[in-house]
Amino acid sequence: MSEPTTLAPVLSDIWDADRSWTLQTYLAHGGYQGLRAALRQDPATVVATVKDSGLRGRGGAGFPSGMKWGFLPPPDGGPRYLVVNADESEPGTCKDIPLMMASPQHLIEGVAITSYAIGCNHAFIYVRGEVLHVYRRLLRAVEEAYAAGYLGKDVLGSGYDLDVTVHAGAGAYICGEETALLDSLEGLRGQPRLKPPFPAVAGLYARPTVVNNVETIASVPGILRGGAGWFTSMGTEKSAGHGLFSLSGHVTRPGQYEAPLGITLRELLDMAGGVREGHQLKFWTPGGSSTPIFTAEHLDIPLDYESVQKAGSMLGTRALQIFDETTSVVRAVTRWTEFYKHESCGKCTPCREGTFWLAQVLQRLEAGQGTSEDIDLLLDLCDNILGRSFCALGDGATSPITSAIQYFREEFEAGTHTPADVLFPLERSALFTYTPRRGAGQLAGVHA
Amino acid sequence: MSVENSTHADVSARAPHRHAAYDEATFARLAADAEQIIARYPQARSALLPMLHLVQSEDGYVSPAGIAFCGQMLSLTTAEVSAVATFYSQYKRRPNGEYTVGVCTNTLCAVMGGDAIWQELSEHLEVGHDETTPDGKVTLERIECNAACDYAPVVMVNWEFFDNQTPASAVETVDRLRAGEPVAPTRGASSVCSFKAMSRVLAGFPDGRADEGVGAGEATVRGTRLAREHGWTAPAFPGEGGAGTDETAGMQPEATPGTTEPEPKPRAKRPAGTTPRTRTAAGAPATRTAPEAAKAAGTPEVGAEQSSAQRSPEGPADSSTAAQDKKQQSEQAKES
């Protein structure tokens, strides 16, 4: 093993500063140097720099960002758009929202650079509607950037014009899917589109469009300020740079830990004080609920795109949800499945109907009333959803189920005779002491 | 459905009128707001989501009058507006309480105690999911992951963060809300605003409170603080002190805008006709969106193209030959 990886705060570097969200603080820490550097170059050079940096999408899929930008057809005189996906809603994922609350200017500078690079004069930030203060901060950040000449007409005297609109969604996980997001931004129900054509060819208003995640775009200013080589000096060969690792759940000090890609959960857990005292790691998600779960045997897998994939999961959004031995995996998976059922947009049959059936089967297993065929039924249902759904939501819904059955089959088998909350009393998993009320009978007449 | 703007000025929540409409003064005020929203977008229909937030800021839910209003402003049928309004969970179909109290019961928060908080609040308030207390103060909801997992279990009040909750802390919060006392979120403005006030912000009208509250909570900065303790930094930017040197970075001359850099030269070639859209010169034809024009137009056309994905590609920029071939194949595959 090489020497242990340490943290590398870049985006999170000013989060502890006084009034970190203001333009003044951002400028005092070197803000907008990336934009100044970009404006001195050809847009094509900026794209090349980002390509050379190896920056990959931080929203889950890990697609090379520079390459994505390069897919735009040559300018034809019509508009081209940048749309930032700030609809962070994947269970476990909690990096973009705190980033935008603590230092929204990172994102705004990234938007300005990226827009310049791809020839866009009107960019959009689509933020989920359920984060009021984050929306306030973004509106204010854009206002400040306009006033200081980083947005608007003739950005920093360069002759380049850019408008930015911050748009609040209204509650729909599916809008994190890029084409559903575009439909939503066009004022429609947020349902995914058939691809191709991809957004690069026909995106917002059927025009060439780049859709990128918040953290991806926020990482661009550093690359322009430090150069591609600076970025590739962090991370692995194919997974370059820094990333926010979000630890949550049964961990002593949950939070955001920004580190080079390739750090391991063991290293991160050490920094976060380990699994909560007196308990052991049982299972975890490497990148949100849509990524197959891992167990203690995966503690040393480098958290980069390739290594995680090789081990049978996905790096996703680096949403490391930690569950200890008190947690029922059946309960956890059932709840995630109820989420996918709730959020399925209804456009395609496998996902709309499949998540409905998955939830029903899982609910009876959680209640200890499953049948001996239920595990096979679940796997069969998953097989009929995975790869057969219109978008990745359906695929994601199967990940926790198939992986949980792979690692904890016996708990699902126990669901044929014993309720999950008998095997794993709920109060043992909670962070506070309480007495659960089990069943309606025990509840009668009881009021706290 | 055409919308009449005369007889039913008073919109009752319990008995929505088919032809419900705002009175003239309200209509004029909301129309002025809507025009501002529409001007933010190259195409008017993009204004629909923020306009539905605007409707909620007026009525506390997506009212029949509000649906008609959106339709009128955007030349859409009420069915088209309703189809959108019913898709998103933040749009309420019944009058909402003054405060939406959402308990995260997605897996992680549920396991950490969210289920217990939910149960306690539901019993305490004697309401279930998406139900409102009789005093009209609190609408209780089970909510999905709200991107604050490192603060689990999480409760949201009018979509402000209440971190690291317990049943007792949540009960105290709702009691104070019902008593009319100011309540401060853990991370957010210095006090929670009303559902209507929140909806107006979500429609894109700032309330001037962005500078209130903390930049980051404790969990957010844990990694940053740990790095400081250990002296861990990201590699220095070439020619600079380093990203991790918090204090010194502020001293660098480059950090001040407009000082030493050479004037950036315009390099981007902009073909003729690419005048960027500005906030005032919205791409949407003004006549189409003006309420008068909408009224004159009468019944909007039904079944027109909606998503731009339904649009046939125009021009070389919209579609390469390869993309066309792929699309063709994909469509054939779908049909077979």
Automatic annotation (TrEMBL), chain A:
Enzyme superclass (EC): translocase
Keywords in alphabetical order: 4Fe-4S, Flavoprotein, FMN, Iron, Iron-sulfur, Metal-binding, NAD, Quinone, Translocase
E.C. designation(s): 7.1.1.-
InterPro entries for the chain: ComplexI_51kDa_subunit (IPR050837), NADH-UbQ_OxRdtase_51kDa_CS (IPR001949), NADH-UbQ_OxRdtase_suF (IPR011537), Nuo51_FMN-bd (IPR011538), Nuo51_FMN-bd_sf (IPR037225), Nuop51_4Fe4S-bd (IPR019575), Nuop51_4Fe4S-bd_sf (IPR037207), Soluble_ligand-bd (IPR019554)
GO BP field: cellular respiration
Residue span(s) of domain NADH-ubiquinone oxidoreductase 51kDa subunit iron-sulphur binding: 330-375
Record bears the keyword NAD: yes
Enzymatic reactions: a quinone + NADH + 5 H(+)(in) = a quinol + NAD(+) + 4 H(+)(out)
Cofactor requirements of the protein: [4Fe-4S] cluster; FMN
Gene3D superfamilies: 3.10.20.600, 6.10.250.1450, NADH-ubiquinone oxidoreductase 51kDa subunit, NADH-ubiquinone oxidoreductase 51kDa subunit, iron-sulphur binding domain
GO molecular function: 4 iron, 4 sulfur cluster binding; FMN binding; metal ion binding; NAD binding; NADH dehydrogenase (ubiquinone) activity; NADH dehydrogenase activity; quinone binding
Family label: Belongs to the complex I 51 kDa subunit family.
Summary of the function given for this chain in its UniProt record: NDH-1 shuttles electrons from NADH, via FMN and iron-sulfur (Fe-S) centers, to quinones in the respiratory chain.
Protein name as catalogued: NADH-quinone oxidoreductase subunit F
Species, as recorded: Cellulomonas cellasea
Lineage: Bacteria, Bacillati, Actinomycetota, Actinomycetes, Micrococcales
TrEMBL record, chain B:
Pfam families: 2Fe-2S_thioredx (PF01257)
Biased composition (Low complexity): 245-261, 271-301
Ranges of compositional bias, category Basic and acidic residues: 324-336
GO MF, any single term: metal ion binding
Entry keyword Iron: yes
Keywords: 2Fe-2S, Iron, Iron-sulfur, Metal-binding
Cofactor(s) the protein needs: [2Fe-2S] cluster
Entry annotated with the keyword Cytoplasm: no
Region (Disordered): 228-336
Family: Belongs to the complex I 24 kDa subunit family.
The protein's name in its UniProt record: NADH-quinone oxidoreductase subunit E
Organism this protein belongs to: Cellulomonas cellasea
